[in-house]
Write a structure and sequence with these properties.
The protein has about 210 residues and is mostly helical. Helix content is about 40%, strand content about 5%. The chain has helices spanning about 15-30, 30-40, 45-60, 65-75, 85-95, 135-140, 170-185, and strands at about 10, 150-155, 160-165, 205-210. The strands form two sheets. The protein has a two-stranded parallel ribbon. The chain has a two-stranded antiparallel ribbon with strand order 2-3. Helix 3 (about 45-60) crosses helix 4 (about 65-75) and helix 4 (about 65-75) packs across helix 6. The longest helix has 18 residues, at about 170-185. The chain is globular. It starts with 7 loop residues before the first strand and ends with a strand.
């Protein structure tokens, strides 16, 4: 029921008033227009949040998020697995009960982590969000860019962005460029950059003001 944003509270705000404020903001965000857009996508608000959490982790570039969202919606419509690296990272951390570990590179052994959050192993959306998506990620899912892309890979020429592809052959060519770059950088340990994607870090802030 939380929508990431900056909120102003008195320093002595009680838990009940805090909860009520969050519930009010949640209902305000999920207005009729957004609910209708979710319905058109065949998604519930919580499913939008789950997918948005993946989009949020995949790219820090707000202008790219609608494209990434479109890729995942295309995969869902085609009955494909999402195969999202951030879900693997989350599954590994969840299984090891260590969310402080830094995962620099998703390895082949990570892809077979048996967890419902691992979208390489299980079809459809994971059972819950892997992070708290911000409003731009939520709106990216609700307003995806319409295209035919099925694949994407981190760009080695436009860092922070991705190269998108329609066919496996196109994607493999992009992937090989990124693998070569990663190997050239000597990245062999765990990092928060996957073999395919650049996840981002969660942003969620509350502004508490004393009056």
């Amino acid at each position: 029921m939380f929508v990431p944003n900056s909120y102003e509270f008195f320093w002595n705000t009680c838990a009940t008033k805090f909860r009520d404020k969050m519930a009010k903001e949640y209902r305000k965000f999920w207005n009729e227009e957004r609910l209708e857009k979710a319905k058109q996508l065949n998604l519930t608000p919580i499913q939008v949040s789950i997918l948005a959490s993946i989009v949020h982790k995949e790219t820090v570039k707000k202008d790219e998020r609608p494209i990434v969202a479109g890729v995942y919606l295309n995969r869902l419509q085609k009955g494909m697995k999402l195969e999202a690296d951030p879900t693997v990272i989350y599954a590994v951390k969840l299984q090891s009960n260590d969310f402080n570990q830094v995962i620099k590179r998703v390895l082949n052994k990570d892809l077979v982590t048996d967890s419902p959050y691992n979208t390489y192993m299980y079809q459809g959306l994971p059972p819950g969000p892997i992070a708290m998506p911000d409003i731009t990620a939520l709106d990216a899912v609700l307003n995806p860019e319409k295209h035919n892309y099925i694949y994407f890979c981190a760009s080695v020429t436009n860092f922070g962005y991705h190269e998108f592809a329609v066919t496996p052959a196109q994607h493999e060519a992009n992937r090989q460029k990124y693998v070569a770059w990663v190997n050239q950088q000597g990245i062999k340990d765990r990092v928060e950059i996957s073999i395919l994607f650049f996840p981002v870090y969660l942003y969620f802030s509350f502004l508490f003001a004393q009056r």
